[in-house]
Design a protein that fits this description.
This protein is mainly alpha-helical and 484 residues long. The protein has 21 helices and four strands. It has helices at residues 2-16, 25-39, 52-61, 68-95, 102-115, 124-130, 134-149, 153-164, 171-181, 186-211, 216-223, 231-240, 244-260, 273-294, 305-323, 329-335, 354-375, 377-401, 403-407, 421-428, 475-483; strands at residues 414-415, 445-448, 456-461, 464-468.
C-alpha cells in the first residue's frame, strides 16, 4: 500500500512538471550549494540557513544542468503528494476495521487537511509549486510512523534520520524513539549511534567550510526570527493549520476514551497507545517551535507541519471512532476497551446517538472547511503566476545581457529584492554572494523593477531593468557590454 502511494505520488509529481512554475528562494539556494559541492566554490555565508538533505540531493542533480531545478521539483512535489496520501492511509489504519465505512471518511479528512494546511505565510499551493521541503518532511515523518507501527525499526530510523536532516526540531523525537527502539536490538543500536554522529556533522561541518562558522545557519535563522512575545502566535498558527474538524475530532476521541474507562482505571487502552503517543508528540513539537520562537527563531506555520499533520490524522480517527456504530460486548472485550469494570462500559453517553451526531456535524465542518480552503487556491495561484512571470523576465534579461557585463563591476550584480537573489545566482552560475541584496544600491550594476536614482538603464526585459551606477573602474567597458 505504501509503495503504491509513493509510486502514485511520483507519477503525479512528474506530470506536474508540465506546469510553468519555478522553485522559490530556498530551493534555488540548495541548488546553488549542491552545484558548489560538485564543482567547487562552495559557500553558505549568503542565502538562507543551511539544510543538509536538500543539498545532498541537489548535488548529484546539479549534474543535469538546466534540468536540475525540475529534478528537485520532482522530489519535493512527490513529498507533497505523498504526505497527503500517507496521512490518509494512517488515519484509515488507526481508525480500525470496526469503524467500517467511516474509516474512509477519516482518510479523506486527514488527507485533505494535510493537502490544504492553513499557512498565511506560504500557502500549500506555493509550497507545492515552489518545491519547499516541509511537505517532504511530513512525508518522511508519517512514513517513519507507519514503519514503526509495522515494527520495521530500520526503515523507521532511516526515514527519521532523513527528517532530522531537514528540521532540527525533529532531533529530540528521533533520539527518544531510537533509544527505546534499540534497547533490545544491538544492530539498531549501532545504526542509531551512526545517525547520532551523522546528523550534527551534516548540519555544522558544511557551514565551517562554506561560511567559516558552524553556527552560521543558526544565526541566519535567528536573523529571520519573530519577537519573543510572538511565541504565543505559534500556538495560534498550530490551532489554525489543520481543519477545524480535526480539533473537534481530537476532543471527541479524548472524551470518548475517557468515558470508556471506569473510575480508578484512567489508563489508555493498548490499541490506542499509538494515538496517545502521537498526540503527546504533536503537542511537544508545537511547544518546541514556540520556545524556539521565543529565542528568536522564526515560528512559521510550515515549520509546524509534522505536528499539524499528526493532529489531522488523530482528529480524523476521532471522528470515525465516534461516528461508527457502537461495538458489541464481545468486540469491546477483544479490543481491550474494558477489563475490570465491564458493567460500567455497557451504556452511557458514548453509546447513544448524541456523540454520533456530533461526529457527523464534525464531518460537515470538515467539508465546509475544505471547501473554504479550496476557494483560496485561485488567489494563491494568481500570486504564483505573478512571481513566475517576474522570474521569467529576470532570466530573459540575463540571457540578453550575458553574465559577464552584469558581473564586470566588482564581480557582483546588485539585487534590490530578496526573493529572486538565489535564482539569479543559479542563472549566473555563481555563488549567492555574487548577487548581494541592496535596497538602494549606490554603485555597480543593479537589477531592479523600479527606477533607481543616479543610474542609467542600459537593458530591460519586461518588468526588470539593468541599471548602471558609478563603478570604481572600467565604467565604459561595463556600459558597452550591457548596451551591446
Amino acid at each position: 500500500m505504501i509503495r503504491l502511494a509513493v509510486g502514485a505520488s511520483l507519477l503525479l509529481a512528474a506530470a506536474s512538471l508540465a506546469l510553468p512554475y519555478f522553485p522559490v528562494y530556498d530551493p534555488w539556494a540548495w541548488l546553488v550549494w549542491g552545484r558548489g559541492l560538485v564543482e567547487g566554490g562552495f559557500e553558505t555565508a549568503a542565502g538562507p540557513s543551511w539544510k543538509p538533505l536538500p543539498v545532498l540531493v541537489d548535488a548529484p542533480l546539479s549534474l543535469l544542468g538546466d534540468a536540475a531545478p525540475k529534478a528537485w521539483l520532482l522530489v519535493a512535489r512527490t513529498g507533497w503528494i505523498c504526505a497527503s496520501l500517507l496521512a490518509g492511509l494512517l488515519a484509515w489504519r488507526l481508525a480500525g476495521e470496526e469503524t467500517g465505512r467511516w474509516r474512509w471518511a477519516a482518510a479523506l479528512i486527514a488527507a485533505g487537511s494535510v493537502a490544504l494546511t492553513h499557512d498565511a505565510f506560504t500557502p500549500p499551493l506555493r509550497q507545492f509549486t515552489g518545491g519547499l521541503s516541509e511537505p517532504l518532511l511530513v512525508a518522511l515523518v508519517l512514513g517513519a510512523i507507519w514503519a514503526a507501527l509495522d515494527e520495521r525499526p530500520g526503515v523507521a530510523l532511516s526515514l527519521g534520520a532523513a527528517a532530522a536532516l531537514l528540521r532540527p526540531e525533529t532531533w529530540p523525537f528521533l533520539a527518544i524513539w531510537a533509544y527505546h527502539a534499540s534497547r533490545n536490538r544491538p544492530r539498531l543500536r549501532v545504526a542509531a549511534m551512526g545517525v547520532a554522529i551523522l546528523i550534527p556533522v551534516a548540519w555544522f561541518a558544511p557551514d565551517i567550510v562554506g561560511a567559516g562558522s558552524p553556527l552560521e545557519g543558526g544565526e541566519t535563522a535567528r536573523a529571520g526570527g519573530i519577537e519573543p512575545l510572538d511565541g504565543l502566535a505559534v500556538l495560534g498558527r498550530a490551532l489554525a493549520a489543520p481543519l477545524a474538524a480535526a480539533w473537534i475530532g481530537v476532543g471527541l476521541l479524548s472524551w470518548r476514551e475517557w468515558r470508556l474507562l471506569g473510575p480508578g482505571e484512567r489508563r489508555v487502552p493498548q490499541r490506542d497507545h499509538p494515538l496517545a503517543i502521537l498526540l503527546v508528540g504533536a503537542a511537544a513539537y508545537v511547544s518546541l517551535v514556540a520556545l524556539m520562537a521565543v529565542a528568536g527563531f522564526a515560528g512559521l506555520p510550515r515549520f509546524l507541519a509534522p505536528a499539524t499533520a499528526t493532529v489531522a490524522v488523530i482528529g480524523a480517527v476521532g471522528i470515525a471512532r465516534v461516528a461508527a456504530p457502537p461495538l458489541s460486548a464481545a468486540e469491546k472485550e477483544s479490543a481491550g476497551l474494558f477489563s475490570r469494570y465491564p458493567e460500567q462500559r455497557s451504556g452511557g453517553l458514548f453509546f447513544g446517538s448524541r456523540p454520533r451526531k456530533l461526529a457527523v456535524a464534525a464531518l460537515a465542518v470538515a467539508v465546509v472547511g475544505f471547501g473554504w480552503r479550496v476557494a483560496q487556491v485561485p488567489g494563491d495561484l494568481r500570486v504564483v503566476e505573478r512571481q513566475t512571470a517576474s522570474l521569467e523576465d529576470l532570466f530573459a534579461l540575463v540571457n540578453r545581457t550575458g553574465s559577464g557585463p552584469l558581473l564586470a563591476c566588482g564581480g557582483a550584480v546588485k539585487m534590490t529584492q530578496v526573493r529572486p537573489q538565489t535564482a539569479l545566482a543559479w542563472k549566473l552560475e555563481e555563488p549567492i554572494a555574487a548577487a548581494p541584496v541592496r535596497r538602494l544600491p549606490l554603485s555597480g550594476v543593479a537589477l531592479s523593477t523600479r527606477q533607481l536614482p543616479g543610474g542609467i538603464v542600459v537593458a530591460s526585459t519586461g518588468r526588470w531593468r539593468a541599471t548602471q551606477l558609478p563603478c570604481p573602474s572600467g565604467y565604459s567597458e561595463v556600459l558597452a557590454g550591457l548596451s551591446r
